[in-house]
């Protein structure tokens, strides 16, 4: 969202957004918003890490996305009954820019190019969501959750293979849609085969290409 504003809005509209946006700060372990709340607007992460989840039929939470600097939150609450269908929870101290529905409405209606690329962004989000509705062996799902962790939060430095932020085993299980015990077994297998290195609660990615192959088995056979 932030890059769309920077690229497709004029300087005048950027100034309009900057004037009307609010800066909000959340401590680690806080909800930016919860599922069922009335949609108030969009949130752009300026700094911090956030996990997005939804309630399943059995009232358990399923982790569906990880968000980092520059990512957008809250867009799934637009349209329909105008309520957030998911929850956003901070993994560390997080600062966001909040853009109200009213401000967003004015900007979107006045900027055709911005609206077009925003629509493309939403379409890509939907495509990615639908692409995940496939059945893979649990090992592959755990690898995908770990790959998503690496892509979302990166590494400690350019030369490091240690994840900058390692999700808890519980969150990895939620992201993979499996159990805590299965994640522990899968990670132990990855560790044994040299794909990763387990360092207490932290994880080092030793073989990114192998992890990608495990996470995307259909691509490795094309």
Describe this structure in words.
By secondary structure, the chain is an alpha+beta fold. It folds into 2 domains: 2-131, Jelly Rolls; 138-214, Winged helix-like DNA-binding domain superfamily/Winged helix DNA-binding domain (Arc Repressor Mutant, subunit A), CATH 1.10.10. Helix content is 43%, strand content 22%. The protein is built from 9 helices and 10 strands. The radius of gyration is 19 Å and the shape is elongated.
Could you outline the blueprint of secondary structure elements for this entry?
Layout: H1 2-8, H2 11-20, E1 22-26, E2 31-33, E3 41-47, E4 50-55, E5 61-67, E6 72-73, E7 87-90, E8 94-100, H3 101-110, H4 112-131, H5 138-153, H6 169-176, H7 180-192, E9 196-199, E10 202-205, H8 208-215, H9 217-220
Antiparallel strand pairs: 1-8, 2-7, 3-6, 3-8, 4-5, 4-7, 9-10
Helix pairs in contact: 1-4, 5-6, 5-7, 5-8, 6-7
What would you give as the CATH superfamily of the largest domain? Jelly Rolls
Total separate domains = 2
Strand content: 15-25%
Quaternary organisation of the protein chains: single chain
Main β-sheet, spatial strand arrangement: 1-8-3-6
Which bin fits the share of residues in helices? Answer: 40-55%
Query: Span between N and C termini?
Result: 32 Å
Rg calc? 19 Å
The first-level CATH class name of the largest domain: Mainly Beta
Structural category: alpha+beta
Largest sheet geometry: 4 strands, antiparallel
CATH topology of the largest domain: Jelly Rolls
* Total DSSP E strands: 10
State the order of secondary-structure elements, H for helix, E for strand: HHEEEEEEEEHHHHHEEHH
Please tell me the overall pLDDT. 91
Reported CATH architecture of the largest domain: Sandwich
Shape assignment: elongated
Put simply, the count of helices is: 9
Low-confidence stretches: none
């Amino acid at each position: 969202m932030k890059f769309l504003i920077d690229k497709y809005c004029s300087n005048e509209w950027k100034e309009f957004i900057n004037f009307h946006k609010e800066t909000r700060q959340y401590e680690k372990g806080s909800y930016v918003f919860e599922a069922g709340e009335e949609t108030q607007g969009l949130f752009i992460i300026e700094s911090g890490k956030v996990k997005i989840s939804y309630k399943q039929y059995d009232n358990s939470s399923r982790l569906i996305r990880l968000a980092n600097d520059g990512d957008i939150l809250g867009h799934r609450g637009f349209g329909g009954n105008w309520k957030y269908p998911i929850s956003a929870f901070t993994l560390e101290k997080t600062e966001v820019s909040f853009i109200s529905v009213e401000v967003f409405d004015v900007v979107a209606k006045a900027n055709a190019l911005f609206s077009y690329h925003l629509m493309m962004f939403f379409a890509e989000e939907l495509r990615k969501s639908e692409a995940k509705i496939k059945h893979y062996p649990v090992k592959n799902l755990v690898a995908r959750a770990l790959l998503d962790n690496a892509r979302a939060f990166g590494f400690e430095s350019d030369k490091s293979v240690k994840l900058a932020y390692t999700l808890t085993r519980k969150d990895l299980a939620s992201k993979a849609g499996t159990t805590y015990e299965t994640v522990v077994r899968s990670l132990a297998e990855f560790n044994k085969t040299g794909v990763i290195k387990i360092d207490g609660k932290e994880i080092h990615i030793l073989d990114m290409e192998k992890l990608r192959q495990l996470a995307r088995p259909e691509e490795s056979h094309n």
